[in-house]
Design brief:
It is built from nine helices and two strands. By secondary structure, the chain is mostly helical.
């Protein structure tokens, strides 16, 4: 239940949660923040998207956004997005003597699940420095080009306007 994939997924969601709501977070930004491979981050994002926590936007200015409010999310909500992979890798204990051990493991997992369901994501996001996100001005500058000033021509428009252009202008 508390494996590296779950913890990396938790870090990804926490960084997306602290980003401004209008600013999607790209896998490249996550790569720079978390020092994980882009393909691994994309596989984490796929599981989180399939779990209903993230939505994605393609194209320029695209990326991932939270689909659920930060205050509504618990750590368990994130971990259960990766739960199907744990079920595939979990092995059954073959001996009948291990029934007591499997019962203990089941009860322990229920206690962990109860704790994680009551631990809000906001308790984690408050410890992440806010300056790791891009400032809004950089976001806007990256997506909108500055307007060019309209400049009047400094040459005559036609040959008929050449005489007026050659006269010195008094300013």
């Amino acid at each position: 239940m508390l494996n590296k994939r779950n913890l990396h997924g938790l870090k990804v969601v926490a960084h997306i949660a602290i980003a401004p709501s209008h600013q999607p977070v790209t896998t490249v930004k996550m790569f720079k923040l978390l020092d994980l491979s882009v393909s691994y981050i994309e596989s984490l994002m796929k599981d989180l998207k399939d779990g209903g926590l993230l939505m994605s936007h393609r194209g320029p200015g695209g990326g991932y956004l939270l689909q659920v409010g930060v205050d509504e999310l618990s750590v368990w909500d994130i971990f259960k997005c990766f739960h199907h992979r744990e079920e595939l890798t979990e092995s059954k204990l073959p001996s009948p003597e291990s029934a007591g051990l499997s019962l203990l493991k089941k009860e322990f997992n229920e206690i962990k699940q109860h704790f994680l369901q009551n631990y809000p994501l906001s308790q984690i996001t408050k410890h992440i420095p806010k300056n790791q996100g891009l400032p809004e001005s950089l976001f806007l500058a990256r997506h909108f080009k500055p307007l060019t000033r309209n400049v009047l021509p400094k040459v005559p428009n036609s040959v008929f306007d050449l005489s007026n252009f050659m006269k010195p202008r008094a300013t």
